[in-house]
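Worked example 3. Consider a protein that binds 6-O-phosphono-beta-D-fructofuranose.
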Amino acid sequence: MKKIGLLTSGGDCQALNAAMRGVVKTIINASDQVEIYGFLEGYKGLIYGNFRMLGSADFSGILTKGGTILGSSRTPFKLMREPDENGLDKVEAMKHNYYKLNLDCLVILGGNGTHKTANMLREEGLNVVTLPKTIDNDLWGTDMTFGFQSAVDIATDAIDRIHTTAASHGRVFIVEVMGHKVGWLTLNAGMAGGADIILVPEIPYNIKKIVKAIEERHKRGSRFTILAVAEGAISKEDAALSKKELKKKQEKKIYPSISYQVAAEIEERTGLDVRVTVPGHTQRGGGPCPYDRVFASRLGAEAGKLIMKGEYGFMVGYSNREIVKVPLEDVAGKLKYLSPDASIIQEAKMLGISFGD
Ligand code: F6P
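Given these inputs, the predicted complex is written out as structure tokens:
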């Protein structure tokens, strides 16, 4: 009998259900001696022993369903070693529930923070297999995370829709794209949507260069300009500040987000009408695109295979077009940034896209 615990942690994304379905179908197809424990709302469920017993019926019809059937929550890694408000040792509580249920392993679906905790549980002696989810595509050790392609589709659609209205009014439009501290989502949606200027955290911008790019477009007869701006985009001046100085500056919070700051600066310097659109959490919403359905199913199937073989301590990832297993200790605590020297950036520049640098 295999006893498997499943949990989804951190911000949700598309294809979490498809990935879990992939794991469970693979295991059930290989053995009928399986018990599945679904922990609710991420690590919280494991800490407080909140779970549901799941059967194959729970995984039927969820391939295309957005969100997660288990619920999710953010339980920051840095607070894991701190007792909760009632003095409960969270790490000991997770271990206790794992051993009490006599689990063979935990299957944990999550992003960066989730992987730090997953690796800590591995170090504490639990059997863990993880799957890389996040629309940000910033997990180290995998070329791609599931949720990313679906979010690219949604952010691209937002830019596509802005195109017609921007062209009608001859305005400057900014579409703010999620992605936390990295620019994968903004770069891909920006290129797919034909943005004229793309601002990503990895390439700090100079506002004068942005203004120049807009003015040159106008001189060439274009009546509008579209910017895809990552929520984590940063100016060259701010990038030169120390962490402490930047935090102090950001505490003043004059604008709701970076896009509004860039918009105000463009308006002031050019006199043009600028509008900001923030698709926000719609980028994580709805069902997975076909790519993510296939991708998450493949990752889930390979995770199921590892579990059947009793191979634990790995994230199932994707490298050079192959599904790979990556040791958790290599993944935990590392972000996968976009390299400013990456060929995709150079190609975008050849196409005339400005990065404001
Ligand atoms: O990590 C996924 C993500 O959507 C980021 O792109 C974004 O910065 C963050 O989560 C938003 O977090 P929350 O849903 O907690 O507001």
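Take a moment to read the result before moving on. The radius of gyration is 22 Å. The CA atoms of residues 149 and 291 lie 7 Å apart.
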